[in-house]
Automatic annotation (TrEMBL):
<feature type="disulfide bond">
    <location>
        <begin position="128"/>
        <end position="137"/>
    </location>
</feature>
<keyword id="KW-0769">Symport</keyword>
<dbReference type="GO" id="GO:0089718">
    <property type="term" value="P:amino acid import across plasma membrane"/>
</dbReference>
<feature type="binding site">
    <location>
        <position position="355"/>
    </location>
    <ligand>
        <name>Na(+)</name>
    </ligand>
</feature>
<dbReference type="GO" id="GO:0005886">
    <property type="term" value="C:plasma membrane"/>
</dbReference>
<feature type="transmembrane region" description="Helical">
    <location>
        <begin position="455"/>
        <end position="473"/>
    </location>
</feature>
<feature type="binding site">
    <location>
        <position position="351"/>
    </location>
    <ligand>
        <name>Na(+)</name>
    </ligand>
</feature>
<feature type="transmembrane region" description="Helical">
    <location>
        <begin position="43"/>
        <end position="63"/>
    </location>
</feature>
<feature type="transmembrane region" description="Helical">
    <location>
        <begin position="493"/>
        <end position="513"/>
    </location>
</feature>
<feature type="transmembrane region" description="Helical">
    <location>
        <begin position="339"/>
        <end position="364"/>
    </location>
</feature>
<feature type="binding site">
    <location>
        <position position="22"/>
    </location>
    <ligand>
        <name>Na(+)</name>
    </ligand>
</feature>
<dbReference type="InterPro" id="IPR037272">
    <property type="entry name" value="SNS_sf"/>
</dbReference>
<feature type="binding site">
    <location>
        <position position="29"/>
    </location>
    <ligand>
        <name>Na(+)</name>
    </ligand>
</feature>
<dbReference type="GO" id="GO:0005283">
    <property type="term" value="F:amino acid:sodium symporter activity"/>
</dbReference>
<feature type="transmembrane region" description="Helical">
    <location>
        <begin position="94"/>
        <end position="116"/>
    </location>
</feature>
<feature type="binding site">
    <location>
        <position position="24"/>
    </location>
    <ligand>
        <name>Na(+)</name>
    </ligand>
</feature>
<dbReference type="InterPro" id="IPR000175">
    <property type="entry name" value="Na/ntran_symport"/>
</dbReference>
Length: 558
């Protein structure tokens, strides 16, 4: 209780809102959303996307922010209080966030690399007169499989032919990765007090650049064709289950449900803060940002299709290449190319920093909640502990800046941000909405804000479980390269490093609590809403004596 009372809070509530927007709005809004729109028939993707925002994104974010603000704890302690049998869900979210922060900072490294390169005139990917270019290079935009553009051949990755070849360490990327972690540390070492000041810039400035890019792109020849492709649906695409699953996954991953980042940051809110207002602000701005980015990207697509003389639907676009290949290629043909390139990659830097802040903060907050006395005794100052966390994450990210790095990155991203997070979120909804109960969560909301959750949110919390049941997992791949079986096995090991905490937490709870397996399971899962001793006695008879701890919620059997 003393730790709860002494817990720091945001200097101003707007700092949490901006930090939440910065956490939710990331690089996925810039490349993944437009890419999924492109692959799913343009405007047809917007229909399931907006529907999933209403029935999936907003209700789940509302749930997480409520738990974090009421419990005033990081994910580990908050989920342990909600449902001790599934306390491993909190530990799994911390593990996922830490794994992600080790490789996600590599994306910031790439953005810095391109940012530094953008100060050259001409841009290094603007022509084929470079030592790394092949005889197949062409300075003109092309869709031919027998030739490649200068932006496609740019030397940043120098990747090997597959995950089997490790290659050598890219020392330039290694040093930029170190610089990226120094930037992260300087922004978060004082906790929410320093992060709250940084987000005023990093959360707002990307919108200035996006709007400037949109104004410029819409004046390019062919831009209207790209925008038309973006907003006019191909209705037959709605018959594909994959389009709906992609829409749900995009909402889920973009907002950051299950990562623990927003839950951790909301634990620093004032107790009576308006949770619903923050929920709507963060989720709606996140989706509007994706749509704004869609207009920016598709106007550039229209320009590229005009240069190549082919329809927008036939452009060669695949995943992250949209940001680091296609868009740089568009810059090369724009007036004042260096200016637009610097602005764009600086925007990517700001977006990446915000998301990285949140992931590192999850690890720091959770360990400080659990081992505060021990950590303070060893490190003396919180700043040194944050430095240690950043240092460990830096060393774990080094394989991603080797020549094999893009394959390591893709493998870790697939099995962490897609596979692991779906398992985690399913059990998080079970723990909060079923075991803890939607009614009790509404009681907490009423205690904090004076208003209960309406019936819409309570219904959506149940519908979410149905959405999880249709999500399908596919093997990891990078462009046309399919990872071999042993690499897929390594991917599942990466996934298990986070998922394994869920059963381990349950086993630990069953081990330490008195009573049989059936008794403890009955209380937490089979009939979690029974609030009286009489209800439990009626289920197990007079052979079980019970005592109540932490109020009427938790029962121990002799």
């Amino acid at each position: 209780m003393d730790l709860q009372l002494n817990r720091p809070t945001w200097t101003r509530q707007i700092e949490f809102t901006l930090a939440g927007i910065g956490c939710a709005v990331g690089l996925g809004n810039i490349w993944r959303f437009p890419y999924l729109c492109y692959r799913s028939g343009g405007g047809a993707f917007l229909v399931p996307y907006l529907l999933m925002l209403v029935v999936l994104g907003i209700p789940l974010l509302y749930m997480e922010l409520t738990v974090g603000q009421y419990m005033r704890r990081g994910p580990v302690h908050a989920l342990a209080n909600v449902c001790p049998l599934l306390k491993g869900v909190g530990m799994a979210s911390v593990a996922i966030s830490f794994i992600m922060c080790t490789y996600y900072n590599v994306v910031i490294t790439w953005a810095l690399y391109y940012l530094f390169s953008s100060f050259q005139a001409p841009l290094p990917w603007q022509n084929c007169n470079n030592t790394w270019n092949t005889p197949h290079c062409t300075a003109h935009a092309t869709n031919s499989s027998y030739s490649s553009t200068a932006s496609q051949e740019y030397k940043m990755l120098e990747q090997t032919s597959g995950v089997e070849e490790t290659g050598v360490l890219r020392w330039d990327l290694f040093l930029i990765l170190l610089l990226a972690w120094i930037l992260i540390y300087l922004c978060i070492f004082k906790g929410v007090k320093s992060t709250g000041k940084v987000v005023y810039f990093t959360a707002v400035f990307p919108y200035v650049i996006l709007i400037a890019l949109l104004v410029n792109n819409t004046q390019l020849p062919g831009a209207l064709n790209g925008i038309t492709f973006f907003i006019v649906p191909e209705w037959d695409k709605l018959l594909s289950v994959e389009v709906w699953v992609n829409a749900a996954a995009q909402i889920f991953n973009s907002i950051g449900i299950g990562f623990g980042s927003l839950l951790a940051m909301s634990s620093y809110n004032a107790f009576n803060n308006n949770v619903l207002k923050d929920t709507l602000t963060i989720s709606i701005i996140n989706s509007l940002t994706s749509i704004l980015a869609g207009f920016v990207i598709f106007s550039a697509f229209g320009y590229m299709s005009h240069l190549q003389g082919i329809p927008v639907s036939e452009l060669a676009v695949d995943g992250p290449g949209l940001v680091y290949v296609v868009y740089p290629q568009a810059f090369a043909n724009m007036p004042v190319a260096q200016l637009w390139a610097v602005m764009f990659f600086f925007m990517l830097l700001c977006l990446g920093l915000d998301s990285e802040f949140a992931m590192v903060e999850v690890m720091v907050t959770s360990l400080m909640d659990e081992f505060y006395q021990h950590l303070f005794k060893f490190f003396k100052r919180k700043e040194l502990f944050v430095l240690a966390v950043c240092g460990v994450a830096f060393f774990l990210g080094i394989p991603c800046v080797m020549q094999v790095g893009i394959y390591v990155f893709q493998l870790m991203d697939h099995y962490t941000a897609i596979v692991s997070i779906m398992f985690l979120a399913f059990f998080e909804v079970i723990a909060i909405c079923w075991s803890y109960g939607a009614k009790r969560l509404s009681d907490n909301l009423e205690e904090m804000t004076g208003k209960r959750a309406n019936i819409f949110f309570r219904i959506c919390w149940i519908i979410v479980l149905l959405v999880f049941s249709i999500i399908q997992f596919k093997p990891a791949r990078y462009e046309n390269y399919v990872f071999p079986s042993w690499a897929q096995g390594v991917g599942w090991v990466i996934a298990l490093t986070s998922i394994i905490w869920i059963p381990l937490g349950a086993i630990h709870t069953l081990w330490v609590l008195p009573g049989s397996f059936m008794q403890v399971t009955y209380i937490y899962l089979v009939s979690p809403h029974e609030d009286t001793v009489a209800d439990v006695n009626s289920a197990f008879g007079e052979h079980s004596k019970n005592i109540t701890i932490l109020g009427k919620r938790f029962y121990l059997f002799n």
